[in-house]
Amino acid sequence: MGDAPTRRLRSLARAAVAFMLLHSLPACDRLPPDEPLDGGFRLHLDTKAEESGILLADRCWRRERGGWHYSIGHCAEMLPPRRMTGIWVTGFEESSFFPGDAAVPNPDDGRRFRLTLEVEEDRVLALAGPGAPSWGARAFALGFVGRRTRYPVGIDCYGGRYYGFVADRLDSARYLGEMGFPQPPPSRAELPPYRGFRPSGEGGVVGRMEQEALRGCMQRIGAGAGASLRRPRETAEGRP
Asked: What is the pLDDT of residues 158-201, one digit of tens each?
């Protein structure tokens, strides 16, 4: 653990690294018109005026540089920025991220759809070069400076945690190949009786979220709404 001065020095060192990473990003006066101030998706510059009321009601949207910008970083507490590598899978309504991986994951990996990344596809394609198709679930190896939500943005009925990642600055991209489709969910008759999940025992925010998820799932499944639940495969590390 170390004494108080040592812990203080380590805290200052981490803050200095985060500061340097953030300030290594392009200055605002050199940004393209649709470039956000804090990474992730492009700005929406053509949003109709009548939609502004709807967007203002959602804390994840905010007015920025004359447009609208959506990011989980606007409405959730984020960890400090750091350099990351991993596999990004993009497809129809998919932006899955597998941090630390170097090869195309198993299509049934339990992290799929639970861990998501905000990054612009055309920027990834520009760095990856020719060869990547424009359809299907495509896997790219990425290197970037980015952030992750400090706490899960959700916990499902099997204890799986959902986190959001934001790419502040994309440094490298390489196309690896296509990722297959996950196995179809089991039929109603094949589903085992739902008995909840074992909480991790963590306290604080995560502990409260687990208790709320478990209570809500038990109530919904007791009312007959749990028949469509599918237990995802666990990752090699255990809990997704």
From this structure: 999 999 999 999 999 999 999 988 888 888 678 788 888 999 99
Alpha carbons 140 and 46: distance in angstroms, whole number: 29
Q: What is the C-alpha separation between 212 and 105, in angstroms, rounded?
A: 31
Euclidean distance between CA atoms 115 and 129, whole angstroms: 25
Buried b or exposed e, range 27-60, using 16+ CB within 10 angstroms: eeeeeeebbbebbbbbbeeeeeeeeeeebeeeee
Residue 214 burial by Cβ neighbours in a 10 Å radius (0-12, 13-18, 19+): middle
- In what helix (H) or strand (E) does residue 206 lie, and over which residues does it extend? helix 204-222
Angstrom distance (rounded) from CA 162 to CA 119: 17
CA distance 83 to 95: 19
194-209 per-position pLDDT tens digit: 888 999 999 999 999 9
Q: For the chain, state the CA radius of gyration.
A: 20
Cβ neighbours of residue 237 under 8 Å, at least 6 residues apart? none
Helix residue spans in 24-113 (DSSP H)? 52-56
Distance CA 240, CA 160 (A): 6
Q: Which amino acid is at 194?
A: Y
* Cα(109)–Cα(240) distance, integer angstroms: 8
Kindly report the number of other CB atoms within 10 A of residue 132's CB atom. 20
Q: What count of other Cβ atoms lies within 10 Å of the Cβ of residue 106?
A: 16
The rounded distance, in Å, linking the Cα atoms of 45 and 23 is 25
